[in-house]
Amino acid sequence: MMLLDALSKIGIPQAAEVLAPHWEESVAALGGGIPWFLAPAEVSAARVWSGFAADAEAELQAEARRIAADPALALVAWHCHRLLYEHTDYENFDSWPAELGGTFYLLVAMGMVRRTREAHTAMGVPEEVTRATCSQLACYSQNYTRMTGGGVGIAMPQIFWTRHYPACRLFRLGRMEYMIRPFRGGVLAFRHRGSGEVVALSEHGTRYTAEGQVAWEPDGGWVAALERTPEEVSGSIVSPLGMAEERKVTLSLREWGCVLAPGDATLSMHIPVGGHMTLEACGDSMRRAATFFARFFPNQLCRAITCTSWIFNTQFERIRLSSDNLVRFQRELYLFPTPSDGQDGLWFIFLRNEVDPKTAPRDTSLRRAVADFLATGERWRGGSMFFLVDDLPRFGTQCYRSRWPPAGTAPW
Predict the structure, then answer these.
(1) At what angle do helices 127-134 and 40-49 cross, to 10 degrees?
(2) Whole-angstrom distance, CA of residue 20 vs CA of residue 97
(3) What is the pLDDT of residues 190-204, one digit of tens each?
(4) Splitting the chain (412 residues) into consecutive groups of 10 residues, what average pLDDT does each group show?
(5) H helix intervals, 10-155
(6) 129 within 8 A of 171, measured Cβ to Cβ
(7) Which of 125, 192, 209, 236 has the most CB within a 10 Å radius?
(8) Are 106 and 137 in contact (CB under 8 A)?
């Protein structure tokens, strides 16, 4: 069946260009019949493994039957599945036709469960990790349910993340997910060889506001400079509270060793929806991650856990939430400023990027607090963090803030 013919049959001929890549390969690979991930037994198994409650079964099975009964629609579902998991060069998911619906795309994505189970089994990954990893589908569906007011499905801005699971790049370990990624930078971290204290210096050329945040505008503020010789490094210090200082310090490289620099392999943390970010749960997850990746990826040394997210916005210190878990977690980490567009994380909070504080939903303490903050006219930021793996035994002691400023970095 030709692509335009299939799309015309289901009423979306305008999607021909975005779905054109690899269409002939998908037609040949299906070879008649229906996609395997639409079979009733496969739908049931994927639902269980991906953490959906039993009451989602009927809706998922009904949608699978609807797709399977229409040869053109079934072929498009198969093609979307292959674009997602077979053709890693394809990335145009944001342009997929919304007319097909969130439940359609969720079933396409749920095909990753079998793929992930097989890949994890081959690696020897424990079943509990596989189940936790696959449960991210239910987390994505929570966002869809909040966004639409009911039903199961997946929002298009999140579907591409599911390709990381069967590729064995992204694993859920306790409360958080992790994957190995090069450090995107912003700072360089140094540890004192004697005391173990840690200090971060800004990358060269970053422009900051007077408050020590990365500047919104290309002029004004001040610009960090970093200079390094074989004997020492000097630059603008960044405190673990997430703010850069214009004043410079000089560190002797005989006394201080670089423990994190741009490009270093790190455990990049991703934070699933769901709340319950207690200090205990966060620390447990980070320790699990360090142990897991050391075991299964022994040739990729990761000395730090890193993350850039709206979760690490230092503005949370200034708003009132029903729980202090998020701020308590922040205080355990080495925060540092990051570029922001003023909308960081608003999609995850309000499920939309453009937010009018006058009309924004206020049905949770988080939404109320952020809407009230935006109503003051301030712009919402994101933030970044690192936590060195060697410091995991000290998680829960605010090991970076409690020893700030480090000895030998005066004058302050």
Answers:
(1) 100
(2) 13
(3) 999 999 999 999 999
(4) 96 97 96 94 98 96 98 98 96 95 97 98 98 95 89 92 97 98 96 96 96 89 96 96 94 97 97 88 98 97 96 89 89 96 83 85 89 88 96 97 80 45
(5) 16-19, 23-30, 40-49, 57-68, 71-85, 102-110, 112-123, 127-134, 136-148
(6) yes
(7) 236
(8) yes
Report CA-CA distances (Å) from 94 to 18, 83, 194, 363. Answer: 10, 13, 51, 28
| 362-389 burial: b if 16+ Cβ within 10 Å, else e | eeeebebbbbebbeeeeebbbbbbbbbb
Q: Is 171 exposed, middle or buried (0-12, 13-18, 19+ CB in 10 A)?
A: buried
Q: Chain centroid to CA 136: how far?
A: 11
Distance in angstroms (rounded) separating the CA atoms of residues 59 and 65: 10
Tokens describing residue 327: 């701020």
Q: Tell me the helix, strand and coil percentages in the chain, rounded to 5.
A: 45, 20, 40
Tell me how far apart the alpha carbons of residues 12 and 231 are, in angstroms, rounded to a whole number: 64
User: Contact, 148 vs 142, CB < 8 A?
Assistant: no
Specify the DSSP class assigned to residue 56.
G
**Beta-sheet pairing, 265-270 with 304-309:** parallel
Look at residue 203 in the predicted model and tell me its pLDDT.
97
C-alpha 238/C-alpha 336 separation (Å) is 7
Place of tokens 């970093």: 226
Question: Running DSSP on this structure, what letter comes out for residue 221?
Answer: S
Q: In what order do the strands lie in the sheet with 334-336?
A: 171-173, 176-182, 265-270, 304-309, 383-388, 334-336
Q: Which residues contact 401 (CB under 8 A, 6 or more apart)?
A: 240, 241, 331
DSSP 339: -
SS3 of residue 247 by DSSP: strand
- pLDDT for 395 equals 98
Burial of 64 (0-12, 13-18, 19+ CB in 10 A): buried
| Cα angle 117, 121, 127; round to 5 | 70
Residue with tokens 């919402």: 380
Per-residue confidence (pLDDT) for residue 412, from 0 to 100? 41
Q: Which residue has the tokens 């540092």?
A: 336
Q: Take residue 62 and report the two structure tokens written for it.
A: 């009904």
Answer for the pair 266, 182: CB distance below 8 angstroms, yes or no: yes
